Amino acid sequence: xxxxxxxxxxxxxxxxxxxxxxxxxxxxxxxxxxxxxxxxxxxxxxxxxxxxxxxxxxxxxxxxxxxxxxxxxxxxxxxxxxxxxxxxxxxxxxxxxxxxxxxxxxxxxxxxxxxxxxxxxxxxxxxxxxxxxxxxxxxxxxxxxxxxxxxxxxxxxxxxxxxxxxxxxxxxxxxxxxxxxxxxxxxxxxxxxxxxxxxxxxxxxxxxxxxxxxxxxxxxxxxxxxxx
Length: 228
Known about the structure:
Distance between the termini: 9 Å
Order of helices and strands: EHHHHHEHEHEHEHEH
Radius of gyration: 17 Å
Helix content: 40-55%
Strand order of the largest sheet: 3-2-1-4-5-6
């Protein structure tokens, strides 16, 4: 029975993979003098926190402070890209309606994101997230938690809404994020597609369903089944 809902943010609530990838590619080439292949991006960047990505790019350890400083260089590039494409800078289709539904049904929900504080501030302002979320409840990359695929983000986000992760429906887009939700023993995981990767996601044994956006009727079916 689903008693709570947990969302990844990047690529899930906001389909920003094009912006995020372009920003990392530009940053990697300028600062680390590396060109990232598709395979390298999926394995070492997608769904990972900035500290892990930086350690991969520069092939050395980063302190928390250094990771935050260098990470913001990449995020400045990313935020400028988002600002310069306002038509693409919107929440995923059907998400506002789903969040309204969760509020009306009194189903607790939260965000577990590898984004840092700078981007979280940006998202709250740009998408008016305060309509649905209390800022202090959000679990983001504060430099203290293990990166996905470790379960830490989802366990912490579930604890914030006082619902065990094992009673939560999780929405994720990245392979590392899906594994993180599975490692947290989430009740169900819906994978959201990026760049026509639906078949790849559907093949994952951890995934209960694959969706393109939040208009998919199966979401409400799963949530309303909690009352049966």
